[in-house]
Amino acid sequence: MPKKRRKLDVVCSNKKCRRYNKKGLKNIVRNGKKQNGTQNYKCTECNKQFVRTKGTPLYYSKLPKKEVKNICNHFVEKNSFRGVARATKHSLNAIYRVADKVGKHCEKVDEEFLVDLNLDMVEADEIFSFIKKRRKTASAKV
Ligand SMILES: [Zn+2]
């Protein structure tokens, strides 16, 4: 299968911009990456910069995207937060934080989030049910 080129489905988030929230106008260009690997974008109309992951767990996470994905994958495989922490070499609190954010986003099925982590709905569903189950037993300090 040929490598699929991801469509730039980002829109300008500046409400004062003439191209605010309009798709397919090619006014959005890639503009380097943030420290944690999040893609940065710029609107050529108003010059405002923004990230697509705004409002998703990745935006708030200090962890690099691939680490968040890694942790998510382990949510599916392991059966405890402690197990995930051990496997990914992150602190238990870091795992709680990711689980909390991911859990919130899975609840409303955040498509952007799924795209960002290259997860499909089934994986997301598994992760969500895992987090929901664990949340009841773990007294997470977030
Ligand atoms: Zn703009």
Q: Could you walk me through the main structural features you see in this protein, from its secondary elements to its overall organization?
A:
It is a single chain. The protein is mostly helical. It folds into two domains: 1-51, no CATH class; 57-137, no CATH class. The chain has six helices and three strands; from the N terminus they run E-E-E-H-H-H-H-H-H. The protein is elongated, with a radius of gyration of 17 Å. The chain starts with 27 loop residues before the first strand and ends in a 5-residue tail after the last helix. Bound molecules: zinc ion.
Q: What's this, in brief?
A:
The protein has six helices and three strands.
Strand-helix topology:
Elements: E1 28-33, E2 39-43, E3 49-51, H1 57-60, H2 65-77, H3 81-88, H4 92-107, H5 111-116, H6 121-137
Antiparallel strand pairs: 1-2, 2-3
The chain binds zinc ion.
How can the largest sheet be summarized? Answer: 3 strands, antiparallel
Question: What's the structural domain tally?
Answer: 2
Helix content: 40-55%
SSE order: EEEHHHHHH
Radius of gyration: 17 Å
Structural class: mainly alpha
Strand content: 5-15%
What gap, in angstroms, lies between the N and C termini? Answer: 42 Å
What general outline do the C-alpha atoms trace?
elongated
Total number of beta strands: 3
Named once each, the bound ligands are: zinc ion
Q: Unreliable runs, pLDDT <50, ≥5 residues?
A: none
> How many alpha or pi helices?
6
Strand order of the largest sheet: 1-2-3
- Mean pLDDT over the residues: 74
